Amino acid sequence: MSDVTMRIWRGDPAGGDFEEYALEAQEGEVVLDVVHRIQATQAPDLACRWNCKAGKCGSCSAEINGTPRLMCMTRMDQLPEGPVTVAPMRTFPVVRDLVTDVSFNYEVAKRIPAFEPPARPAEGYRMQQIDVERGQEFRKCIECFMCQNVCHVIRDHEENKPHYAGPRFFIRLAELETHPLDTNDRRELVRQRMGLGLCNITKCCTEVCPEHIKITDNGIIPMKERVVDASYDPVGWLGRKIMRRPKRSPEEAAAGSSS
Amino acid sequence: MVDYETHDYDVIVIGAGGAGLRAAVEAKERGLRTALVCKSLLGKAHTVMAEGGVAAAMGNVWPEDNWQVHFRDTMRGGKMLNNWRMAQLHAQEAPDRVYELEAWGALFDRTTDGRITQRDFGGHRYARLAHVGDRTGLELIRTLQQRAVHLGIDVFMECKVLRLLTDDDGRVSGAVGYWRPTGEFIAFTAKATVLATGSIGKSWAYTSNSWESTGDGHAMAVWAGADVIDMECVQFHPTGMVWPLSVRGLLVTEGVRGDGGVLRNSEGTRFMFDYVAPMFRAETAETEEEADAWYEDHINNRRTPDLLPRDEVARAINSEVKAGRGTPHGGVFLDIASRRTPEYIRRRLPSMYHQFMELAGVDITAEPMEVGPTCHYMMGGIRVDADTEAATVPGLFAAGEVAGGMHGSNRLGGNSLSDLLVFGRRAGIGAADFAEGRTGSPQLDDGQASAVIAAALEPLGRDGGENPYQLHHDLQQTMQSLVGIIRTGPELEQALEKLGELRQRADKISVDGGRAYNPGWNMATDLPSMLTVSTAVTQGALHRRESRGGHTREDFPTADPELGKVNFVQRQRVERGPDAPIEIGPEPLPQMPPELTVLFEEAH
Fold first, then answer.
1. Cβ atoms A195, A160 nearer than 8 A
2. Is the separation of the CB atoms in B360 and B243 below 8 Å?
3. Among A62, A81, A100, residue at a domain's last position
4. Same domain, A123 and A233
5. Tens digit of pLDDT for each residue in B325-367?
6. Contacts for B356 with CB less than 8 Å, ≥ 6 apart
7. Residues B70, B97, B237, B553: which is the catalytic one?
8. Alpha-carbon distance B415 to nearest alpha carbon in chain A (angstroms)
9. Domains annotated on chain B, with CATH
10. Range of the domain at A36
11. For a Cys staple, A195 with which of A52, A164, B528, B541, CB 3.0–4.6 Å?
12. Does any domain span residue A259?
């Protein structure tokens, strides 16, 4: 088989550049296989994060030929001919080579009030399949953080990070909001502290999602509608007061107390 | 002298898969200072790979199911080598652990009346696996991760633990390791330490395991003087991908067969009907008609042989390929396309659909998959007390795949996720009880910590030595070819010899670059674990001169009733120094009480 040329970004927080590696192509390989072969034969300290190599753990996100993808699910034979460029995700600080510091995401996760169901009835919780499927779509998320990486609110805008949760956490919040058992109301929290209003639905996140979650259409847009309803719709407000669903008030949830 | 940071906790949990997370949650809920230490980012552990489901006798689909049936299935699947008490606790407590996950936000698939639905799996008499499509492991780990974050557990991510520390009384008192991003060292003191480090599969060439499965916990326990049992019992899952080569070994869930898929050889024959062992004959269908009718009616039909326990199916596939009835890439066909509609397949098995479509260019709704055995699961592990998960060294606890006993010589599908939950919780309780009762604060022994650090740094100071990647590759080839699915005495002897050579080469590893996120150095620090564990597996396999469950000896092809009464226990006498050999010998299994033995006498 013919040779392949890989242009891989090497460096650390101080800076770096692309380095070229040439090696023989092998049938059926994905980008991560080639990176591993470079480690084993040419650059033993080439840093790259990976785990399952099956598209299930979301560790090996990188920008391949400029597009965020999982290295383990990108077949070499489906990339255009010519050198293949692999760079770290740009939105997060570089640790080394292809590895980035994604701790921003773990910090946002800590700020989300937990799921809170009513007491379990003696016969157990009952939920219909059709009702759990809404949340299940969002729970397919493997936390590869590629949606965060392409979101232009924080890509190249470090200043927005403190008050913007990003698409991954909008669908986490949407999942909780649509959970048939959840009693927390997080709409004010989403509006005031999670920066949902900054998203202007360009759908970049949806395009890169390896799990094909319709982040914008099924998560963010319905959330925006619910948040608007909570803030500005007096009929809806009255309806919620009369209905006896034991949701906590938006203000309580926004205060961030979670238990 | 190299500096290191220090941290003090009541309980540290090493490993953040399902078992580690569940243990940490339990200790934290008790109000103890709890740390969770993991080699990868939180939520990436190998548990995410689990596909099929959590086995729990909830009886939501088949009200006939109960813990006694689950217990019996588990023991028979393990060929009666299981620790009966663990199997009993597991069967009794699994349903509560599933409902607990639901209360923490997990969204399992539902029955038409709104309860958690359950699917069929190999070796389980009734549809028993609570699931979320074919991504149940992800649901489990995410739910536990979110619970852990909510409780405010301190998480040390991308932090690799090298060794356990012991105090003067021989109690485990903490651990030492390093941060992968920086290479800086870190030491913990803890009143109780839980190992939940998962599997060992990365010592084989074809495995469903991720890079993390290097047997760190198994090895660290041995180095601390703890007993390990049943190390010869390694499960080769019957259905891994065989092509393309780069993904060879990647798991194809048993759910494919649970949902109607069947195995065929190159002649199109459903060959599993020819491989029904006497133990399973009474409950297994004899014709394709009966097997197919079973999916809809479990009461009046017997189950399909495609869903025999994994060891049986893996050996059958091996035999078919050996007899020349394999597929072009050396596997057999797994066919669900001709048996279920494309819509059904995509709904029930979405991950499998994408995995084959994207990695192999195969549409599983239109054509059969090619599959073959892959190193998947470690039944053997740290010997623990069934109720508390205490190891034989005080202060040390173990749960999940790193612990031995629960699954005997072969694990049933679905019993792994339930194992993580049941024994993760129990290990958390055991560790918390021990921590609360422990007198005095564990002191950090700087001599021990510094010696561990010095050893870890050696490869970085060496020039022109062995390449760690090459050494790993050679280890994988050795274990794959000599300690694989079918074993013989002479090959195992040869493997021990080769492992001795590899250990010597490992002393001469040299690594380029610095300490910050250096995968070559990381590999060098993983190799001691892999070599220790591989040696223990090979020794166990050599001593167990019979075939039982996941352990198959070509030179002893049948089960020996006498060997069925013992565990092979391995132990390093640490008082004799770090190079003391790992000694091995048989010890009797715990005795099952009469009220449980009676379950195996009833005709079924």
1. yes
2. yes
3. A100
4. yes
5. 999 999 999 999 999 999 999 999 988 998 999 999 899 999 9
6. B241, B362, B363, B364, B369
7. B237
8. 20
9. 236-375 (3.90.700.10), 456-564 (1.20.58.100)
10. 3-100
11. A164
12. no
B257 labelled catalytic: yes
Is any Cβ of chain B less than 8 angstroms from the Cβ of A24? no
ipTM value greater than 0.90: yes
Q: What is the pTM of this model?
A: 0.94
Q: Which two tokens stand for residue B50?
A: 């689990």
B314-319: long-range contacts, CB 8 A cutoff, minimum separation 24? B314/B236, B314/B237, B314/B238, B314/B373, B314/B485, B315/B275, B315/B485, B315/B486, B315/B552, B316/B238, B316/B263, B316/B271, B316/B272, B316/B274, B316/B275, B317/B238, B317/B263, B317/B371, B317/B372, B317/B373, B318/B373, B318/B485, B318/B486, B319/B275
Q: Which residues in chain A are contacts of B113 at CB distance < 8 A?
A: 126
- The answer to whether B61 and B111 have CB atoms below 8 angstroms apart is yes
**B498 sits in which H/E element:** helix B489-506
Q: Do A51 and B46 touch (CB under 8 A)?
A: yes
- Quick check: is A241 in a domain? yes
Give the C-alpha separation, B601 to A112, whole Å: 53
Q: Kindly give the parts of chain B with pLDDT less than 70.
A: 602-604
Specify the pLDDT at position A250: 55
Sorted by sequence, the CB contacts under 8 Å of residue B531 that are 6+ apart come out as B475, B499, B502, B503, B506
**Domain-located, residue A174:** yes
CATH of the domain at A205: 1.10.1060.10
CB pair distance less than 8 Å for A139 and B518: no
> What domain count does chain A have?
2
Q: CA of B162 to nearest chain A CA: how many angstroms apart?
A: 19
CA dihedral sign, ordered B278, B284, B290, B291: negative
Q: Cα(B124)–Cα(B144) distance, rounded to whole angstroms? A: 26
Q: What is the DSSP string of A29-97?
A: -BHHHHHHHHHHHT-TT-----S-SSSSS---EEEETTEEEEGGG-BGGGSPSS-EEEE--SSS-EEET
Q: For residue B49, give the nearest of A27, A33, A54 by CB distance.
A: A54
Count the neighbouring beta carbons within 10 Å of the beta carbon of residue B278. 6
Alpha carbons B305 and B286: distance in angstroms, whole number = 8
**pLDDT beneath 70: ranges in chain A:** 1-2, 231-259
Residue A178 lies in a domain: yes
d(CA B372, CA B236): 9
Asked if residue A134 and residue A175 are part of one domain, the reply reads yes
Interface test with A, best of B107, B111, B242, B525 (most A CBs within 10 A): B107
CB contact, 8 Å: A1 with chain B?
no
The H-or-E segment that residue B435 falls in is: helix B415-437
SS3 B155: strand
- pLDDT digit string (tens) for B377-414? 999 999 999 999 999 999 999 999 999 999 999 999 99
Q: Say if CB B529 and CB B195 are below 8 A apart.
A: no
